[in-house]
Each structure stands twice: as structure tokens, then as C-alpha cells.
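Final report, closing paragraph on structural work. Over the funding period we assembled a curated collection of sequence-structure pairs, and we close with a single example.
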Amino acid sequence: MGLTWELVINSKRRIWNAFVRIIVLSFCVGISSADAKTIYQTKSDFVNEAFSHTPPRPNTIWLTRQYSPTVKKILGHSYKSKRIKYWRNSAKSVWILEEIGKEKPITLGIIINNKKIQKLRVLIFREKRGEEVRHPFFTRQFIDIELTSDYQLNRYIDGISGATLSVNALGKLARMALYLDKVINEQHQK
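Its predicted structure, as stored:
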């Protein structure tokens, strides 16, 4: 009987130890995925690619009282920075912008050529969910989109189930980049 009792105790210990390991492992995996950050392309590589590896010098647009209200209308809140760097070469401009998806910023590279989006790419994704927005099947929808007079996109963008907030963030940034492109083109015409 003593041997049987000892086997029962050892079995319970092994089960308890396995349970503790599973809890600890689950906790560690949860922490690492909470800090997820995937870089698909660096900002400098995106800019270099946009201008065939000879980018112009960067410029800065200040979100003054003149432009800030429209940006706020587009995003639904003020942009995180008062100045935004961009690159411009004749009719082409390149923007690196960020917007919160659900909880963390999504970094987006946008190329605008002749007032239309030429390319939109997710450069850095930090959220736990919604990463599908980085795939070409989704980002291709933005090609040749323009801004309407009421600061909307001139075409509907299909959403992705489970990635609604990320989809919305990309749409807002596309609208913001098109608006800022319009502003800098008007400035350069003066």
C-alpha cells in the first residue's frame, strides 16, 4: 500500500509541475505577443524605392491652424505631431505616417503621384490583430484613389473581418496623405 500511495503523490506532483509550466509558458507567450512589432520595410528603404534610390531632400509641412482642423476632421483627432516630413519630386510625394489601429501605431508609407495614390504599404505593424492589412490583396485597393472635395476617398475600400480598426487606420492615413499632398502642391504653385 505504501508503494501505491507514493505513486499517487508522485503523479500529482508531476501533474502540478506540468500545470505550473503551462501557466508560466502561457504568460511568457502572452507578454511577447503583446509587444509584437513587425517591420516589413524600413522608412528609408521605402523612400529610396519610391525615387529609384535617388530621393530628394526631405521637406517639412507644419500642421498650422490653417491645416490642423482638416487633419483633425479626417482622423477624428489631432495628429500626434505638428510637423510632418515628406519627400517631393515634381508631381510625386512620399509620406510616412502613423495612426493607432486598436491600441498601437501602424506605420504606413504612401506614394502619391498626380493627386492619386500610387502605392500604399504597411511598413511597421505593432498590433496583435489586423495584420492582414499589410497584404497586397488589401493595399492594392488604394491604387489610383483620389480625394473628394469633402475629404473622402473616391472609391469604397473593402474591409477585412477582424481587422476593422486597422482598415480604418489605413483609410484615414490615405485621406490625410492625399490632403497634405494637395496642400503642398498648392504651396508650390504659388
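Helices lie at 2-34, 43-50, 68-75, 136-139, 164-189. The CA atoms of residues 116 and 144 lie 5 Å apart. We thank the funder for supporting this effort.
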